[in-house]
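Example record used in the benchmark description.
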Amino acid sequence: MLDPISLTAITAVLGAVGMGMGNEAGKWAWESAGGLVRRIVGRQVAAPTGPAERDTVARLIHDAVRDDPALARAWTAFALTAPAPGEAAAIPALPPSVRFFTDRQGPMKRLKREARRKADGRPRVALIHGPEGIGTSALAVHWGCGQARRFPDGQLYADLRGASSGTALDIATVLRSLLVQLGVKQDEVPPGTAERRERFRQSVAGRRLLLVLDHAHSSAQVLPLLTSAPGLFTVVVARRPLPGLDAVPVPVGPLSERDSRRLLKSLVEKRDLAMARPVLPRVLERCAGSPYALRAVAPRFLEPHLLAEAATGPDAAPAGDPVRAAAESAYRELEPGAARVYRLMSLWEWPAIGPAVVAQVTGVTEAEAARSLEALADRQLLERTGTGRYRYRPVVRAHAEEAAGREDRIAACSAALTGTVEWYLRFAVRARLDALPQSWGIGPLYDELKGSPGPYGDTGEALSALEAELDNLVQAVRAADELGEPEWVSQLCQALWPLQLKAGHHDVILPALRVGARAADAHAPMSRMAGRMHSLLALDLVELWQFEEAGRELAAAARAEQEAGHLRGHASAVESLGLLRLRQWRYQEAYDCFAEAGLILDGIGPGDEGEDDLPRARALLERHRGRALRGLARYAEARDLLETGLRYFRAADPYNTARTLTDLAETRLDAGDPGAALPLIDEAMAMLDAEKAAHHLTHLRALRERCVSAREGVA
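Model output (structure tokens):
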């Protein structure tokens, strides 16, 4: 067993605690670690925000405990019960392969050769590249699905959405997806990008896995995901070679005429194919070996007159891009309603569209919208996502957008995009009010909808609705900013708050919040809205361990709220800055922030906004001040403040009662009184068991074990 006070063990414990900060219990443990580190080292130590800083802190602890038995026992007691990341043992699988797949023997041999290459420290990587519609993604998935025996520990898949820089996913978001596929629980995903990379590398080490990274935009998206794990083979799919990526190139070109005919034979009945023999050469010429174009033309074999028109009509000349040519042919055959949907929903890079928003924008019923979407998918003009929504291929969307500009003109296109954003705005604000009914929001739509009944059965259903549209809502923020509607931007950003607070999608939401803060500063500087936007951005940055930037954003929020004369918002921003300082192990600064927030609250008088919330706000500040004093080892003062907060929470707030009981227990334990801590822990466990707070209970069980060991003289 590794010596708990060895440098290696100390570094591992700090890393494990840091990786566990994706949930509230993990944050609790991190805060406890900071107080203990301060006590061991004898001075304030900045919380590490990356592997290099963590190594430095580990050395400080190691140097202090190796010559002091009492400090060594204190660290050992913490280390033995510190939270550890759960096992990532799921066996992921690729998406389904296409039903009919033709040829590609050469590319598949290249993939097989690289997959079998002897491990030598270099990542095993292949780059499949080729123009859109040529079948690069299908090749990666089809080959991978046939390699289950070679990769018995699973096959990971991530769509990097690299059609453009505006849609490409950042590395933190991709890592979250991969870790969840590997079996890491959502609330156990590490908050920082560096920690996620480390957890990913740990999770794939010693396992035989295939990783498919589809629709890559650049090598910068891919490089952080590469490891030298001997059992990992990474297949990257892109539309072109990616400079800077050291990978075996696997170019994919058009199907030969023979293989094109073979694919058509798989897709079309033999009789229909025979009847089309006179125009078949022109059809094959037009499809130019593109699997997408061949699949798109296949339904026309049921209608010979359409097939003949597609092959010999005015648009039948071979085009430079067979995907675009196939889209044009399919578009000309649409009913007017479906054609209008095709055009007007293409005006922004929406990740996936559903019938409700289509109905709103085009003025039809949801049932009619659903039929139009299905008709477009049948014609290969949209792809089904498997969630009741549909998406465009990039080249097809470009074709649809061009058709909209040509046929609907600027005014109609502008109205359609505006209507789409308006639908997402109203949907988001309504769901946000139902997901967090006690939370306030700023803006006319919040004023209009607050107090009116929503369509959701409970808060969980409203949160799920927001989560299902998250990617579209982030794009709606960008679109609202492009339309010059800063008020819409801010209201949409506020609607994302339940997903920050309860669902942890901080990395996905971050780009939208950056847009929100920038728009508020440009159009309403030093206003309540600017304060709100900077606060939301800062809280997101805190959860992503981007502490320095978060501090700057909270300072900007406090200035804006103060300038706007909004005392409740000003106090909240200063309180949030204090919570950030706790996370950074800067306990005196945290205490000073909480004291300042209390003074600001004192300015709220009878009838002022926030008056009703004052008792709870002050109780929370008492608890936070107690936490800061505990970190400073001022245990008696900490206990008094925590008990003051506890008296309020016992009457009104079971959850915060349990949290405050836990703070008191840890204060008692740190002060050397484990016997007094035990009943507090037991009471908190009983309350949290009723709340089904699994992570908090795990933390409390570990805390109880430390108390029992300390009382029995083991530690």
